[in-house]
């Protein structure tokens, strides 16, 4: 019985396919505000409608997980991922599927199979939203990683001296990125001195101190000497109050002082070097 009902629906849709597509595109285009070309939208919706009608004709029934709907699910997955990567909202993405119900109502709303078909479209819409959500989470995760990379620059200050200026909170995830970037830069540049500047770190607690110490130890294992700069009076008082020990790690109040120390440790006569450069 269901096959017969959907058979009538498929027949009507095929007979009025261009009109149905035109109405569907019109509804979807309103929500996209020109962010897709008419050609792109036409192909996307035409392929999806053709796959849906083929699945119905093949006896897919009302179960969107049926084998007959494999191509439909694949097309919906591609649509959702593309929308997520292009920055479309969940609503704009869902409209691409749910708008088909309005288009069908305008063309074949009098068919007995219209109601079960709209129920099926609701299920397909949920699949679209689930794929979109996963894809959007991946986009956000990738963007967060990129921001971590950009927020953790390692710069070369002098021959054999690199600096890692930290700004903002230093949590476990960022501390790992900091360590990896510093160690890789030490390898790439062959530097023997590293300055970790915490001027931009708002507060230093036990956790932050542990992250710094681990980074220094890792750098030392690479054969590099580390200096921590940016020790402000408030931070110094906090470190003392918490009983945090930096051991034999050199600390300086400013990046400039740390640079001078690193240069002197590298065996360069800083005064002579400045005189030679006319500074």
From TrEMBL:
Tagged with keyword Ligase: no
Record-linked SUPFAM superfamilies: SpoIIaa-like
- Which Pfam family name is an example for this entry? RsbRD_N
Domain STAS, chain residue ranges per copy: 151-262
Q: Which UniProt keywords apply?
A: Phosphoprotein
InterPro entries linked: Bact_StressResp_Reg, RsbRD_N_dom, STAS_dom, STAS_dom_sf
The name this protein goes by in its record: Polyvinylalcohol dehydrogenase
Question: Which species is this record about?
Answer: Acrocarpospora phusangensis
